[in-house]
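Internal ticket #5521
Category: modeling
Description: The requester needs a full-assembly model to guide mutagenesis choices. All entity lines are attached below as received. Residue total reported by intake: 433.
Assigned to: D.W.
Attached entities:
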Amino acid sequence: MYAHVDGNNFYVSAENVFRPSLKGRPVVVLSNNDGCCISRSNEAKALGIKMGEPWFKVRHLEESAGLVGLSANFVLYGDMSDRMMSLAAGLGPTQEVYSIDESFIGLHGVRGDLTRRAHAIRSRILRWIGIPCGIGIAPTKTLSKLANHVAKTAERKPGSYPDDLAQVCNFGALPASDLDTILATTEVGEVWGIGRRIGAQLQADGVKTVLDFVRLTPATVRGRWGVVLERTLRELQGQPCIQLDDCPSPKKEIACTRSFGRPITKLEVLEEAVSEFASRAAEKLRKQGSLAGQILVFAHTSPHRPGPRFSRSLVVPLRRPTADTRNLVHAAVMGLKAIYEPGFDLMKAGVMLLDLMSSDVEQGELYLGEPFEISDRSKLMSAMDTLNGRFGKGAVHIASAGNSIKPKQWGMRQERKTPSYTTSWDQIAIARA
DNA sequence: TCTGGGGTCCTAGGACCC
DNA sequence: TCTGGGGTCCTAGGACCC
């Protein structure tokens, strides 16, 4: 048995904890550059605001409907997530943290009434952290996510499902006929692993509900859509195919990319941005103990704006695998210079580290220039990481990433950001009696 | 004026090997 | 008329997830 736990409207709920006056109002949290809505309160959903909807299209609702738009505060959300995950872990012996607001819990060996246990954990998370959660329980991961969907929908839209399934929904405790009724009232597109494209194809074939889908045969599904969807089908039929992954393997690629707050045309400014992206990516790389064999750099104009288009990328092989910021920045800037052309309003750029490998297997070399020791290089980098950890991001950085005296010309727009209530001493929340 | 960022996996096709 | 069998590696593109 598996449980799936996730926070309702997670980013908005995290903001609500520190600004209770937002409760009951339509609130959205915006992506970087205050671009799109990436989390919506129930009231915002009720206004018809879609996931990913551009802010400029819904902004008029500030006046007419009291809509509140907040810039994303990922530091706050990350910290609230850690707290929520540690409580969710109390549900069973193993946990897979699947995303910032979701985890799967393995329930193997857990005795007693699972539904009651889940309700208790849910109350604890609400009381101690302030985040409302949904919990789904079922024999497979895919079914547990679906059960959670039912738990949430039953709470948000009374009458859509039996009321007693609200907040916590345990498929394992349901008679088969009740489960069929639930599957028959749930659209096939709600299933984890069925996206827009395949959802539309299934609909066109007359497979409209989850029950319709579950009644197909694995062979049919495999023949038409492949092994991935076959696995989803089997999971829905109750056959576990996706293991709990409680010890995630290191990333195979690491990216750092950004849209700019305004168009950039000058190479010098781009060089600063790309240096910064490569530095950030290098930090992530060292954190997971890897080396990169190649680095990709790209820049492009906005796909939404008229005018001449530009979009280019280049993969720069590194002479030898490295996690040294200086090598990675150098390679990224060389790549940028090779693809750059003047005369375009560039709106986005980024780097990706590719061909990652463990730093345990670093290959030495015969080098006929200045001799160096591998360990000296990593000492410098870990000194940098330690300083930045203690004194804040960018306290020590590479010169080509710009300096703090001159304001960044390529920064993001973030006009509505809330304080880092839980992670910064000078922004800590103050309780008043 | 204005549209995010970061990942994974699978498949097909081409080049190349013996 | 008719054109082997088995394999690897790489890339691009498509689909999905949050």
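Resolution: model delivered.
Comment from assignee: Residues 38, 98-102, 192-198, 226, 228 of chain A lie near DNA strand C (CB under 10 Å from a C1').
Ticket closed.
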